[in-house]
Amino acid sequence: MNRLAEDDPREILKTYVSRHGLKFTRQRELIADVFFNSQGHLRVEDLLESVRAIDPQVSLATVYRTMKLLTECGLASPHRFGDGHTRYEPAETKEEHHDHLICTACGRIVEFLNEEIEELQHRVAAENGFVVTNHRMELYGLCKRCHGQLDQ
């Protein structure tokens, strides 16, 4: 399910859970609201901490299940950046696309967009008779701070 930028994520989730015979509970709504109002790439544990500041009764399992639903209905994008954790960010529209730089030392994640790289990817795909419908690029290395610490 692709979302449109003008669609309300809460309504998309509500429709999705209803179509799958599930309930749109107060806890699911709270988790979704906190997720969409957060910054960065959240681990489930980070999200749970923020949600429990509002409702201490929310369980880790409920957060995991809600993130699975948000992913299934196209509202959340999971990322595995090699640190053993899945991190989530709101799913991007075509206009919001970005790629990632991941520091293998400290785990810092930098989002970037480079139109030249995007054009090159599409050109390579076209030269090979391939139509790109989606892609993800993650570059791993050392951030400026960690690289500087190696020099010392």
Labels describing this entry:
152 residues, alpha+beta, Arc Repressor Mutant, subunit A, Dna Ligase, domain 1, 2 domains, 3-stranded antiparallel beta sheet, 3-stranded mixed beta sheet, 43% helix, 16% strand, flat, disordered N terminus
Give a verbal description of the structure:
The chain is of the alpha+beta class. The protein has 6 helices and 6 strands. Strand 2 and strand 3 form a beta hairpin. Helix 2 crosses helix 3, helix 2 packs across helix 4 and helix 3 crosses helix 4. The chain is flat and about 50 Å long. The termini are far apart.
Ordered list of secondary-structure elements with their pairings:
Elements (H helix, E strand, L loop, with lengths): L8 H11 L6 H11 L5 E2 H9 L7 H13 L3 E5 L5 E5 L8 E5 L5 E4 L2 H13 L10 E4 L2 H8 L1
Parallel strand pairs: 4-6
Antiparallel strand pairs: 1-3, 2-3, 4-5
* Average predicted confidence as pLDDT: 87
> How many helix segments?
6
Helix content: 40-55%
Tell me the series of helices and strands, N- to C-terminal.
HHEHHEEEEHEH
CA-based shape: flat
In short:
This protein has 152 residues and is an alpha+beta fold.
